[in-house]
Design goal:
4-stranded antiparallel beta sheet, single chain, Transmembrane emp24 domain-containing protein 6, Jelly Rolls
């Protein structure tokens, strides 16, 4: 007969295997290494269906800088309303920021550790889908200093090498922020490209329709002009009557 403690452990293992255990944060690596506190970012495009609500989850530690930016690139449908509702919620369900525009940014300081929820709502455009470019992530202040301190304790770096590493860490931070600005510019460039493509298709089809109307109107005018000068041939038996 199994003991109660053995039964509890077995039930816990079965539930975890089936995926019912909710993980609060990623596991640390083996050894003395702590949880990763570097920059973690994503950028991609997503097609949001009509009147749909889609959510994404991104993990962040406490005391991090969470950023989220988006831009609507193209819209299909009848109304073609390019406005979208974007919200970011904390792991506890609190609203951290919202935006209801064609493009927007949400930045805040994380006060808790967990998975932050990013939701996009296409309720403004109920008859067409839209493509949205997303750029979100989290970075931590002091990450470079922590890494520098660990390396200094292990390798006993001299002052010159420590200065070089500090400068390199500062340059790496500047490069990261430049990447963010570049990504936002790429969103604008993608939007302009899709707008130019849409205008090109509109001008092409409208020009073709106008050309067809001009040709058809010329043909009808010629037809009616010929009808005005149409005369019947007369014979001895068929003569025009007064």
């Amino acid at each position: 007969m199994l003991k109660p403690s053995t039964v509890s452990v077995a039930v816990f293992v079965i539930l975890c295997v089936r995926g019912w255990c909710q993980k609060s944060e990623p596991l640390a690596l083996r050894g003395e290494q702590s949880l990763f506190r570097g920059s973690d970012r994503y950028d991609f495009s997503y097609v949001l269906p009509a009147a749909a609500l889609e959510c994404f989850w991104h993990f962040a530690h406490q005391s991090g800088n969470f950023y989220f930016s988006y831009e609507v690139q193209w819209v299909t449908g009848i109304g073609k309303d390019r406005h979208i509702t974007a919200t970011v919620n904390s792991p506890e369900g609190l609203l951290m920021g919202s935006s209801q525009d064609v493009r927007g940014q949400i930045n805040f300081r994380t006060k808790e550790t967990g998975f932050f929820q990013i939701c996009l709502s296409n309720f403004h455009n109920r008859f067409g889908s839209m493509q949205v470019f997303l750029n979100f992530g989290v970075y931590y202040d002091g990450f470079e200093e922590m890494q520098h301190q660990k390396e200094q304790e292990k390798k006993q770096l001299n002052d010159t090498l420590a200065t070089i590493e500090t400068s390199a860490a500062r340059v790496q931070s500047y490069v990261f922020h430049m990447w963010r600005y570049y990504n936002f510019a790429r969103m604008r460039q993608g939007t302009d490209y899709y707008l130019l493509l849409s205008n090109y298709n509109y001008v092409t089809w409208w020009s073709a329709a106008q050309s067809l109307v001009i040709v058809l109107s010329g043909f009808l005018q010629l037809y009616f002009l010929k009808r005005l000068f149409y005369t019947k041939t007369t014979t001895d038996t068929q003569k025009p009557r007064c």
